[in-house]
Amino acid sequence: MKIFIDPGHGGPDPGAVGNGVTEEFVNLNVALELERLLREAGYETMIYRTTSDENVLENKNADLRNRAQMANNWNADYFISIHTNSSVRPDAQGVEAYVYRLGGTSERLAQSIVNSISNELGSRNRGVMQANFAVLRRTNMPAVLVELGYLTNSTEALNLNSPAWQRAVAAAIFNGIVNAVGLPRPR
Ligand SMILES: [Zn+2]
User: Fold this and answer.
1) How far is the CA of 158 from the centre of ligand 1 (A)?
2) Could you give the domains of the chain?
3) pLDDT category, 185, cuts 50, 70, 90?
4) Proportion of the chain above pLDDT 70, given as a percent
5) What is d(CA 137, CA 124) in angstroms, rounded to the nearest whole number?
6) Is 147 known to be catalytic?
7) How far is the CA of 180 from the centre of ligand 1 (A)?
8) Which residues make up the environment of ion ligand 1, defined by Cβ < 5 Å?
């Protein structure tokens, strides 16, 4: 079973910034830990970037196309994009996920990941919503974009910046994936 992991942003685009914490690094740390857990469990994985700027294109739209294209060319079974949120309201908090269309495998997978993060880490469960994001629209396989929490919320920014919390949320995403799609057959 092939899982493509997309750590959001990187290169010229740091993503959201809040309370001194920058999104691209949170996304990357969580994605790398998620990849480690998936490989250990026998999934095949591909990750878009393992550093701040690896593979990341200067042009934002071209870069988003490139992420989807790489997953499509590899024939990934599932696409997981990892992001961190921001809001003009400092009290906004919680975990949410996006899919291109509600009602299918993507939504089941997204719901499982969001529930797992909320149950295991106590984050407010903001549910699964539909969004016309390029990486969701352009991927040929079930695709989920998860927003782990809000950098603009001081409590969540502390968590998102903590290596222990990053490992815990990666484990929660892993459990959400296993619960939704099952473990790979032993090779
Ligand atoms: Zn983002």
Assistant:
1) 17
2) 2-181 (3.40.630.40)
3) confident
4) 99
5) 27
6) yes
7) 24
8) 8, 15, 83
